[in-house]
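Supplementary Methods S3. Complex input for the 1,3-dihydroxyacetonephosphate-bound model.
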Amino acid sequence: MRTPIVAGNWKMFKTIAEASDFSANVSKAAPIAGVEQVICAPFTTLPALSELFKGTSIALGAQNMHYAENGAFTGEISPLMLKELGVKYVIIGHSERRQYFNETDETVNLKSKAALQHGLLPIICVGETLAEREAGKTEEVVRVQTEAAFAGISADQAKTVVVAYEPVWAIGTGKSSSSAEANETIRYIRQVIASLYGQETADQVRIQYGGSVKPDNIASYLQESDIDGALVGGASLTADGFLQLVAGASGK
Ligand code: 13P
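Predicted complex, serialized as structure tokens:
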């Protein structure tokens, strides 16, 4: 059984004061069992959230990291720095980083391996652009991205990885993929992982859908056979929204 995982990706939103308000508001709500909950927050808010989330059911995530432990890499954050703060998850290869910050399949692989070596769990993002989808290349794109990301990762490590299938055209646009279509691509991604490690390992890897997931549509995704959770941007920014997402996922 794969435990559903709902992760909020706050992107470049929230000061420390705003993050603290969010934490105070979620702490008032009754805990929801059966769903792993993660907030991937901006670096500047991680020290505060690391304290504030103690004793809550929310695990802390980052949105990116460098693959080196340290070095002359101005402006970067290393796995050791995240570990020190009690960060558990780290998003790797989000399409916004691939699009705007030169993230490549190679750096996604280096970062994923470095995260695992340091006991951080990567949430590896894959997904096609609209042009790739219209050219019928969705499966090829996610296969190449998935194979590259997992290169050199052992089967035991692979079981702990979370993959997020986020079609680029569905991010922040309000245009979500239908749950059936998302499930088909996610099932294909699982087959790709099975071709690398065997079915038993592939069956343990959790694969999320991301792209305009909202409280009113999350349950339809989670009902699908292969969708194990959601990576959510906009709708995760309010405590109420996040709690509704988690509640919507708890029916799985
Ligand atoms: P939205 O939920 O705002 O579409 O963002 C999706 C996303 O990019 C999560 O990583």
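The longest helix spans residues 179-197. Strands lie at 5-9, 36-40, 58-62, 89-92, 121-126, 162-165, 206-210, 229-232.
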